[in-house]
Design a protein that fits this description.
- This protein is 42% helix and 13% strand.
- By secondary structure, the protein is α/β, with parallel strands linked by helices.
- Strand 1, helix 1 and strand 2 form a beta-alpha-beta unit.
- The mean pLDDT is 95.
- It binds ligand SAJ.
- Ligand SAJ binds next to helix 9.
Length: 430
């Protein structure tokens, strides 16, 4: 049910806990609408950077919005929570070694804000979370503040309102998607949802669609699991086509001409902080039922190893052709980021592939990543060299295209005689 927000409910002072890839843009957008925003983070460097009007993460145009918000005095960062009318929690939810969700950051955030909570406050959890996390957060808050009432016991009459509202923005397009995307709002009671709708109504132009907290939690996980399963289908097809000597790129383009078929693109694996993580929150909770979602995770997680095998075979073939030792073959890896046209190397399959190749082929690897100036330590210390595209094309015997960045799409190279190409994105071999 889409809800028109109650104009009587307005928020003048809010707090955003966790000033990362979601929290900081959200805080800045609220501030740009005239709301006083107190940003809270445990990272002193992030707090200092934001207070000086700069940013510690990479996202187009975010620097300008944060700069303007701090100069106008609407956004201020701090290490310690302060009283506010609403608290938005946007902290990480990683998983532990066995894929068990790690809610310790949410627990720490709840314990940090509990002392400053006042009757009438709204607390919204935005972090991607397993089903039941919002109720768990409310339980932590209630344990810390026995003098206040919460929805799990007081229902609609509670002093504190609690809701779940997942972020759904695409890295690289965060500022636009924050404003334009619809929001799913899951209050612990209808009144909690109404308060959260009023809060997001400050800047959201999309619809605020109301449900309960558990459905909203599952909705976020479902969106990313849906994408993971669809990418796994494409990745599985790439393995099948390789074995059957068919171009997977041509195959997908042909199949997608069917009006009800829309296959995604294979790649070097699934990276980033969301799609490779969130489906595990479903599998962990319902392992017997989530068979397809689990299989998709395994298919996507195994793709980098398959790519490594292809590169190893290409290196052996290049050595045979050149009549040289395997250790004399030069390998160029094109792209390190977790997806095209960003500089984010965290959880990137390409980085893992290059790292493992660097162990097998020490001193033989050039990495071309147009979006960075220096290699991460885990590659630099393994003897990988950062090279420009022209040098890598001129000197390498094996070209491994791992990410389809714009410069690679726009200048499709003509291979020198004998060059082996592993094209995981179908732009140099299709
Ligand atoms: N990928 C492929 N083939 C494709 C599409 C993607 O291999 O056809 C790979 C990418 O190269 C990358 C990974 O999948 O390694 C994920 O990239 P992505 O662009 O699909 O997604 P993210 O992780 O940048 O952002 C996702 C988005 N979720 C959905 O599209 C359902 C975003 O809307 C979410 O807000 C975000 O996760 C999040 O924070 O959860």
């Amino acid at each position: 049910m889409a809800v028109a927000h109650d104009p009587g409910l307005s928020f003048k002072r809010i707090s955003v806990v966790g000033l990362g890839y979601i929290g900081l843009p959200t805080a800045a957008v609220f501030a740009s609408r005239g709301v006083e925003v107190i940003g809270v983070d445990v990272n002193a460097h992030a707090v200092e950077t934001i207070n000086s009007g700069r940013i510690h993460i990479v996202e187009p145009d975010l620097d300008m919005v944060v700069h303007a918000a701090t100069v106008e005095g609407k956004l201020r960062a701090t290490l310690m929570p302060e009283p506010a009318e609403a608290f938005l929690i946007a902290v990480p939810t990683p998983f532990k070694n066995d894929h068990e969700p790690d809610l310790s950051y949410i627990e720490a955030a709840a314990r940090a804000i509990a002392p400053v909570l006042e009757a009438g406050n709204l607390v919204v959890l935005e972090s991607t979370s397993p089903v039941g996390a919002t109720e768990q957060m409310a339980a932590w808050l209630a344990a810390a503040r026995p003098d206040l009432t919460f929805p799990q016991t007081a229902g609609e009459d509670s002093d504190i309102r609690v809701a779940y509202c997942p972020e759904r923005v695409l890295p690289g397009h965060v500022l636009r998607e924050l404003v334009e995307n619809d929001r799913v709002i899951g209050g612990m009671t209808p009144r909690c949802s109404q308060a959260a709708c009023a809060l997001y109504g400050t800047f959201v132009q999309g619809a605020c669609v109301v449900t309960n907290a558990r459905t909203a939690e599952m909705c976020k996980l479902t969106e990313n699991a849906f994408r993971d399963v669809n990418i796994a289908f494409a990745n599985e097809l790439s393995l099948i086509c390789d074995k059957l000597d068919i171009s997977v790129w041509e195959l997908i383009a042909l199949a997608n001409r069917h009006p009800r078929v829309n296959i995604l693109q294979p790649g070097a694996g699934v990276g980033g902080h969301c799609i490779a993580v969130d489906p595990w929150f479903i599998v962990n909770r319902t392992p017997d039922e989530a068979r397809l979602i689990h299989a998709a995770r395994l298919v996507n997680d195994s793709k980098p190893q398959w790519v490594i095998g292809k590169v190893e075979a290409a290196v052996a073939a290049a050595a045979r052709r050149k009549g040289c030792a395997v250790s004399d073959v030069r390998i160029a890896a094109f792209g390190l980021a977790f997806k095209p046209d960003i500089d984010d190397l965290r959880e990137s399959p390409a980085v893992g592939i290059v790292e493992q190749l660097a162990t097998s082929f020490p001193g033989q690897i050039l990495a071309v990543e147009p979006n960075i100036d220096a290699l991460p330590a885990r590659l630099a210390t393994r003897g990988v060299a950062l090279a420009d595209m022209a040098e890598a094309l001129r000197t390498a015997d094996v070209w491994a295209l791992l990410v389809d960045h714009k410069p690679f799409r726009e200048a499709v190279p003509t291979p020198r005689a004998g060059v082996e190409i592993i094209d995981t994105r179908g732009i140099w071999s299709a």
